[in-house]
């Protein structure tokens, strides 16, 4: 069908790899061009960072203002319980169900972008993707933004704005936390058997790698547009 759009685009990659910049670029593109060029419809974004940041804020209020025990994180900002990584994914599942109940499938021209990062220290992409609902996977394509750990570290340091630590585009992790949580990921292992499809919970999901080793997502809109067009059209042609 002409101008058909992605139902769900799962956007993954290391912190500061360029995921948020890609979304920002898409949001700045006219709705007509988003559909025609990128197969992106009326856009909704499910990003686990705001969920996670809310937990940090709640814990700060509990410990610093109310003098009560922290619920989610320790004093160093690490999760108190490993299952909270799973809770973030289940929150995405819940929010997606809420979105879908309001949309008539016969009139649907919307795209949901689901964004998150995962390192092997907390189960990697295998664990996170395995918890996403079948309803999400049946509609999905995956775009993985590929950068090295060193590039993730460089950009994570550069984007930090201490006045806006909750900002999607300007939040950052301390070096030691980035290394512990995200130095290693399992993407190459997850995709080793098939260059085009992931098989998760018995469902084949197409994927494409967006190579950002040369950082086209920073102050290079023309190259970003060119590379994103190529990646999303490849993904669309795989059957999304």
Task: Describe the sheet with the most strands.
Answer: 6 strands, mixed
Order of helices and strands: EHHEHHEHHEHHHEEH
- Alpha-carbon Rg, integer: 18 Å
Whole-number mean pLDDT: 91
Question: What does this molecule look like?
Answer:
- The chain is of the alpha/beta class and 240 residues long.
- It has one domain (8-48, 86-237): 3-Layer(aba) Sandwich (Rossmann fold).
- Helices cover 44% and strands 16% of the residues.
- The chain is built from 10 helices and 6 strands.
- It has helices at residues 19-28, 31-38, 48-65, 84-101, 124-131, 134-137, 149-158, 175-182, 187-190, 221-237; strands at residues 8-13, 42-47, 110-116, 140-146, 197-200, 203-211.
- It has a 6-stranded mixed sheet with strand order 2-3-1-4-6-5, with helices on both faces.
- A hairpin with a 2-residue loop joins strand 5 and strand 6 (203-211).
- The longest helix has 18 residues, at 48-65.
- The model has no long low-confidence stretch (mean pLDDT 91).
Quick overview of this protein structure:
The chain has helices at residues 19-28, 31-38, 48-65, 84-101, 124-131, 134-137, 149-158, 175-182, 187-190, 221-237; strands at residues 8-13, 42-47, 110-116, 140-146, 197-200, 203-211. The chain is α/β, with parallel strands linked by helices. The chain has one domain: 3-Layer(aba) Sandwich (Rossmann fold), CATH 3.40.50.
């Amino acid at each position: 069908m002409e101008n058909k759009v992605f139902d769900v685009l799962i956007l993954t990659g290391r912190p500061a790899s360029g995921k948020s910049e890609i979304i920002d670029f898409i949001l700045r593109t006219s709705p007509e061009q988003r559909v025609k060029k990128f197969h992106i419809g009326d856009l909704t974004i499910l990003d686990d960072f705001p969920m996670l940041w809310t937990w940090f804020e709640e814990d700060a209020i509990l410990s610093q203002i109310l003098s009560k025990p922290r619920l989610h994180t320790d004093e160093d900002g690490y999760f108190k319980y490993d299952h909270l990584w799973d809770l973030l994914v289940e929150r995405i599942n819940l929010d997606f169900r809420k979105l879908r109940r309001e949309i008539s499938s016969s009139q649907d021209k919307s795209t949901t972008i689901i964004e998150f990062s995962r390192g092997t220290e907390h189960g990697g992409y295998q664990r996170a993707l395995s918890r996403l609902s079948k309803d999400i996977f049946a509609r999905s394509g995956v775009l993985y933004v590929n950068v090295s750990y060193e590039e993730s570290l460089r950009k994570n340091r550069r984007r930090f704005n201490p006045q806006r630590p909750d900002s999607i585009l300007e939040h950052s992790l301390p070096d030691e936390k980035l290394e512990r949580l995200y130095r290693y990921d399992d993407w190459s292992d997850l995709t080793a058997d098939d260059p085009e499809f992931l098989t998760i919970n018995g469902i084949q999901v197409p994927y494409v790698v967006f190579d950002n080793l040369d950082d086209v997502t920073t102050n290079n809109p023309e190259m970003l547009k060119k590379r994103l067009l190529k990646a999303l059209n490849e993904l669309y042609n795989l059957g999304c």
